[in-house]
Specification:
Layout: H1 9-18, H2 24-30, H3 32-36, H4 38-43, H5 62-73, H6 75-88, H7 96-108, E1 112-115, E2 124-130, E3 134-140, E4 161-162, E5 169-170, H8 178-198, E6 203-210, H9 218-224, E7 233-235, H10 276-291
Parallel strand pairs: 3-6, 3-7
Antiparallel strand pairs: 1-2, 2-6, 4-5
Helix pairs in contact: 5-8, 6-7, 6-8
Length: 313
């Protein structure tokens, strides 16, 4: 596989399915999603094995020193924001207190906050400055269901526990560390705004409070509504167990709601039965087959090379 510069898990699985002689071109042709993500990196010459970072781009400047100094002197405020959001542990699209906590810190530092991005009440855009390059930061703050946990506890110790002898349940919790994500992103945006102010720089800083991230809806609808239009650069991150740049391209996902309607039929006339449950089960089964790649992703749009015409009756 000398022509494959980087073998990731998805590519490796695809190669196993195609055979040992699969080339990069064969793999990318067989997987349009891979071709649109990792394949794009290869076409533009980007590879984690051969990439060399440019030098001299992150040197110390007075503006950078000002931003770092604000982070250092306000570390307690930033930590308190993270702890507060952890304590709220609000689920997707219900992040009322968590969103307000981020917005309050931004407003205290001169940001203008506009609520209701893409129609979500708990989403907002906070803006500082005008003109110049438009720099974006992304804050997420929703929790996951069933992961309630007290801060600082190294064993399972939920804040919210609903007793049921047959199936106890737990409240929401930040297993994905969105409390840290939102707190750090908000702090970074404020720190950059302090550098802009102190050194008379022309720039616009935007912090996007993103709702419903754990349900895969926040950013997708925001993009569709044009919330991110006009940005020159975005700095985003996610908590992890080590500090590292993650070399990969990921795909956007969008949730949808399907409603199945049906009508009961008498046992003697089975054709009169239109079961909504049958429709839901069939869709779930076929979706699972698609997810497992048992059906080629381009099958539905392939045009046959010739068309057979039935003779007239």
């Amino acid at each position: 596989m000398n022509d494959v510069p980087y073998v990731g898990r998805r590519r490796l699985l695809k190669m196993f399915g195609l055979g040992a002689t699969a080339t990069t071109a064969t793999v990318l042709q067989a997987d349009p999603v891979l071709a649109a993500t990792l394949g794009h990196d290869e076409r533009t010459g980007v590879s984690p094995t051969g990439y060399k970072a440019p030098t001299g781009l992150a040197g110390d400047t007075p503006a950078k020193t000002t931003a770092d100094s604000w982070i250092t002197s306000n570390s307690r405020t930033i930590t308190e924001l993270s702890d507060e959001v952890w304590q709220h542990a609000e689920l997707s699209l219900r992040e009322w207190k968590s969103a307000q906590a981020h917005a309050a810190l931004l407003e205290r530092n001169g940001f203008r906050v506009t609520w209701g991005s893409a129609g979500f009440p708990t989403a907002f855009v906070a803006t500082y400055g005008s003109g110049g390059p438009v720099l974006g930061f992304s804050a997420e703050y929703d929790a996951l269901p069933g992961l309630s946990q007290k801060k600082g506890a190294s064993t399972h110790d939920p804040l919210v526990y609903n007793y049921d002898a047959y199936g106890p349940t737990y409240g929401g919790g930040h297993g994905d560390a969105h409390n840290l994500l939102g707190g750090a992103a908000t702090a970074a945006a404020v720190a950059v705004s302090k550098a802009v102010e102190a050194h008379g720089l022309k720039a616009t800083v935007k912090l996007f409070g993103s709702a419903g991230e754990e349900q895969l809806v926040g950013k997708a609808y925001a993009v569709k509504a044009g919330v991110y239009d006009g940005l020159d650069a975005v700095l985003d991150w996610h908590p992890f167990n080590v500090t590292m740049p993650f070399w990969n391209t990921t795909s956007a996902l969008l949730s949808a709601t399907f409603t199945f309607l049906g009508a009961s039929g008498h046992g003697g006339t089975p054709l009169g039965n239109k079961s909504g449950l049958d429709g839901a089960l069939l869709m779930a089964t076929m979706s699972e087959y698609l997810r497992e790649k048992n059906v080629a992703p381009w099958a539905a749009s392939t045009t046959p090379s010739s068309t057979a015409v039935a003779p007239p009756m």
